[in-house]
């Protein structure tokens, strides 16, 4: 009885990271995708929807650097005649729009949108985008109402940059999506203009924090380290002035994060 040959494949993930997956040479692309997502699932605490096979497809690269999408998932690995043991896992465009809206839409409707993974039609995505914008408008109106009612500024906003973060923050939503905690470690690397050595910060942040929140924490940490005797009032003044002047570059890909959109609505997993 002949032994089935096993091959190690480098799989490029949508967030820019590469993992190694062991596959048999007669394995179908569908099975390879399933094994890849199983590896990811063991490492990430996100909702089951993120790991749904039908939201992804595989791509190969020829010796001439031509990218070929592999939509026929019943093709076997040994039929691909790969130039190199390398495949890319890609997300359907509709699913990218869907993940942006997922947390907010779940909160609006009162239940997790597990079934939305199967609705990849353009109309469904447009409907969710419209509802998302409507939710933003309602949030803005609610904040204006609070301000008109004379609520103190510090109670209205906590810097006003947490508006959208506070909108989706819900412990009940965390439980529905199987998350035990909304706090995650965030590794941030800062490359200063006139320095060749980056400064690194290990922060603890909520999934509902915005990029502005992360930048503010980095600036505050840097000020505390460089000038521990500075008055807290002066530090906060500097943070408020500079926190909107920077963006975050997602590790391993080109996505830039800025503004008040919560990290949980981003498709990246690690920030630098």
The multimeric state of the shown protein is single chain
Q: Could you give a short account of the major beta sheet?
A: 5 strands, mixed
Lateral arrangement of strands in the main beta sheet: 2-1-5-3-4
Q: Per CATH, what is the topology of the largest domain?
A: Ubiquitin-like (UB roll)
Counting structural domains, the number is: 3
For this structure, what is the CATH class of the largest domain? Answer: Alpha Beta
Structural class: alpha+beta
CATH architecture of the largest domain: Roll
Distance N to C terminus:
51 Å
Question: How much helix, percentage-wise, in residues?
Answer: 25-40%
SSE order, one letter for each helix or strand: EEHEEEHHHHHEEHHEE
Look at the structure and name the CATH superfamily of the largest domain.
Answer: Phosphatidylinositol 3-kinase Catalytic Subunit, Chain A, domain 1
Please provide a brief summary of the model.
This protein has helices at residues 29-43, 93-109, 122-148, 153-156, 163-168, 171-176, 211-226, 232-242, and strands at 6-12, 18-24, 56-61, 67-70, 86-91, 183-190, 199-206, 248-249, 256-257. With 272 residues, the protein is of the alpha+beta class.
Question: Could you explain the architecture of this structure?
Answer:
With 272 residues, this protein is an alpha+beta fold. The chain folds into 3 domains: 6-91, Phosphatidylinositol 3-kinase Catalytic Subunit, Chain A, domain 1 (Ubiquitin-like (UB roll), Roll); 93-156, no CATH class; 172-272, Phosphatidylinositol 3-kinase Catalytic Subunit, Chain A, domain 1 (Ubiquitin-like (UB roll)), CATH 3.10.20.90. It has helices at residues 29-43, 93-109, 122-148, 153-156, 163-168, 171-176, 211-226, 232-242; strands at 6-12, 18-24, 56-61, 67-70, 86-91, 183-190, 199-206, 248-249, 256-257. Helix 2 (93-109) packs across helix 3 (122-148) and helix 7 crosses helix 8 (232-242). The protein is elongated.
